[in-house]
Structure formats: structure tokens, C-alpha cells
Amino acid sequence: MAELKNVLGSIGLVNPVTYLQSGNIIFESDNLNAVSLERIIEESIQANFGFKVPVMVYSKKEFESIFLNNPFANDPKIDKKNLYFILLKTQPDRAIFDRITSSRSFDEEMSLNGKVLYMNYVKGYGRSLIGTNFFERKLEQTATARNYNTMRNLNERLQ
Q1: CATH number for region 60-158
Q2: Mean pLDDT of all residues in the chain?
Q3: pTM of this prediction?
Q4: For the residues 134-155, what does the mean pLDDT come to?
């Protein structure tokens, strides 16, 4: 991850810090355009490491909002180890999402809010048939999942 931090520093990102080996990076930048930053970072990773990886950039305020707006997090009956955030590259068509989720029976509880799908994997993430790949395929877009603890830790680091 040290090499990645060096690459990010070389493109003008300030104080890049990686979190575990998860692909999460916290940095500062004068460039406030998330789409522009995503493109620059994607191109730099491809140029320096030889592979293409989708990048999603959030401001501190956006990330905090994503974390704090989880509709399941404050329910004392829900085990937080079953909570996941599926971060979508773009806001999906609500009609498509509703059709996908109403056409079958799921054990999972879910709530779509903009580009974030909040998931309560009641029986555990590993036992579910509707993980990140399912939503990428059905919604035809890039997605990535983070568990509640990772999101909490990242949010704390941003404070």
C-alpha cells in the first residue's frame, strides 16, 4: 500500500492514508470534483500498476451522511455484524430496483437511498445469494460493499 500512497501523492492528493488492504483511501484534495478525481485516480492506478479498478470518491460530508443514514444501525435487535453498505457508482433506476426486489422473496432487509443500498443480511453476508455481484449484474453498474465496522472506522478517521 506504500506504493499506492506514493502514486496518489504524485497526482496531487494530500496525506493519502490507506485503511487495511480494503482499497479504502482517505485523502485531501483541492480538486472538489468527485467525477474528475475518480477518473484521475483510475488512470493513475492503471498506468502505474497495470490494471483497471473502479474508483468511487466521496467528500467527508457525503461519507458521514452515508454512514449516519443507515436505517438499520440504531435498531438494538439487529446485529451490526450483519449490516452492509453497498455503494453504487450511480443512482439506479428505482423502478428496476423495485422490480428486482419484489419479484422474489429475500431473507435480507434492504433500503435504497440514492447511490447506497443499506443491507441487513439477517442470516449473514456469506449465506446470502444477493451480494454485490447480484446487484452489479441486475442494476448493470459497478458496486462495492463495506461492512458496518469498516464504515464506522472510516467515518471515525474522517473526524
Answers
A1: 3.30.70
A2: 93
A3: 0.92
A4: 95
So what's the pLDDT on residue 33?
A: 92
**Count of H-run helices and E-run strands, the chain:** 6, 6
Strand order in the sheet with 83-88: 109-113, 116-120, 83-88, 143-147
Rg (the chain; Cα; Å): 17
- End-to-end Cα distance, the chain: 22
On whether the CB atoms of residues 143 and 89 are closer than 8 A, the answer is: yes
Question: Among 1, 9, 24, which residue's Cα sits nearest to residue 150?
Answer: 24
Q: What are the sequence ranges of the domains in the chain?
A: 2-49, 60-158
User: Which residues lie across from 125 on neighbouring strands?
Assistant: none
Burial of 29 (0-12, 13-18, 19+ CB in 10 A): buried
The C-alpha atoms of residue 125 and residue 128 are separated, in whole angstroms, by: 5
Task: Quickly list DSSP for 50-114.
Answer: S---------HHHHHHHHHT-TTTT-TTS-GGGEEEEEESSPPPHHHHHHHHHSS--SSEEEEET
Instruction: Summarize the confidence of residues 76-80 as an average pLDDT.
Output: 96
3-state secondary structure of 5: helix
